[in-house]
């Protein structure tokens, strides 16, 4: 029996859930390689500090597709980092007048992101330091949480065409605060994406959002994200 046949025989004896996990891991690996290749024109020879806390390469590619194909110009990001730098690089690459606001609770990290971003070119980029505070609002969260202090952050109502929710990372429930924050600020024609839906708390957040928002939701198991789109637009995952 060849080595390949032995591996195939051993795999066939595994429980179905284990076989599916191996399949998903294999697809994820190849998907990440494909996405990194697609993003290469934006990264070039510029180093980006990718880590386990950074945006998934598949999600980064999807966000770029969303910006280009559905023409999203006004972008609000929660959780600054590699994705912020890629968005600015996309604006430079295609000469797009993107208006990017990126919110993070860590002032020191924002200084690092500023160096990563470099020359914004045609984009308008605002890196916003917003400490985490106890959530206060008309909608009661399912568990105590802290959300960014948006009191001094100027984001006009009905202006955000794309929102990226990849923070804060304090607890799984923390991102629940994005919905009451985004609600009045979302444009009529818009999209937002919630990252890390494989985490139990964030998965429950996604369920709550579906109940409150309606509209079109699309779950991407490979990228572990959930997209929400409203208005006339393409699904470009």
List the helices and strands and how they pair.
Layout lengths: L2 H10 L3 H28 L13 H13 L4 E5 L3 H13 L4 E6 L2 H11 L6 E6 L2 E3 L11 E3 L11 E6 L12 H5 L3 E10 L4 H14 L2 E5 L4 E6 L7
Parallel strand pairs: 1-2, 1-6, 2-3, 6-7
Antiparallel strand pairs: 4-5, 7-9, 8-9
Helix pairs in contact: 2-3, 2-4, 4-5
Task: Explain what this protein looks like in three dimensions.
The protein has helices at residues 3-12, 16-43, 57-69, 82-94, 107-117, 178-182, 200-213; strands at 74-78, 99-104, 124-129, 132-134, 146-148, 160-165, 186-195, 216-220, 225-230. The protein is α/β, with parallel strands linked by helices. The protein has a single domain (37-230), classed as Vaccinia Virus protein VP39 (Rossmann fold).
Quickly give the structural class.
Answer: alpha/beta
Please give the domain count.
Answer: 1
Would you give the CATH topology?
Answer: Rossmann fold
Strand content: 15-25%
The N- to C-terminal Cα distance equals 41 Å
Q: Please report the number of helical segments.
A: 7
Approximate shape? globular
According to CATH, the homologous superfamily is Vaccinia Virus protein VP39
Total strand segments: 9
Mean pLDDT: 83
* CATH level-1 class: Alpha Beta
| Rg computed from alpha carbons, rounded to a whole number of angstroms | 19 Å
């Amino acid at each position: 029996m060849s080595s390949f046949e032995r591996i195939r025989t051993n795999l066939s004896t595994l429980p179905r859930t284990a076989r599916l996990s191996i399949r998903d891991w294999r697809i994820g690996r190849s998907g990440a390689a494909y996405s990194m290749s697609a993003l290469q024109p934006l990264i070039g020879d510029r180093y980006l500090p990718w880590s386990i806390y950074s945006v998934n390469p598949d999600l980064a590619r999807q966000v770029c597709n969303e910006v280009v194909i559905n023409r999203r110009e006004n972008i609000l990001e929660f959780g600054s980092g590699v994705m912020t730098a890629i968005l600015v690089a996309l604006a430079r690459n295609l000469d797009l007048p993107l208006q990017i606001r990126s919110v993070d609770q860590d002032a020191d990290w924002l200084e690092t992101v500023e160096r990563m971003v470099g020359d914004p070119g045609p984009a308008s980029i605002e890196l916003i330091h917003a400490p985490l505070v106890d959530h206060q609002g008309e909608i009661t969260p399912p568990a105590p949480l802290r959300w960014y202090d948006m009191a001094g952050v100027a984001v006009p109502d009905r202006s955000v065409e794309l929102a990226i929710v990849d923070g804060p990372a304090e607890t799984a429930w923390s991102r629940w605060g994005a919905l009451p924050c985004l609600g009045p600020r979302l444009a009529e024609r818009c999209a937002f994406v919630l990252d890390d839906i494989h985490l139990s708390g964030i998965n429950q957040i996604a369920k709550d959002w579906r109940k409150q928002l309606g509209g079109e939701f699309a779950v991407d198991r490979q990228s572990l994200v959930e997209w929400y789109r409203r208005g006339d637009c393409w699904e470009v995952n």
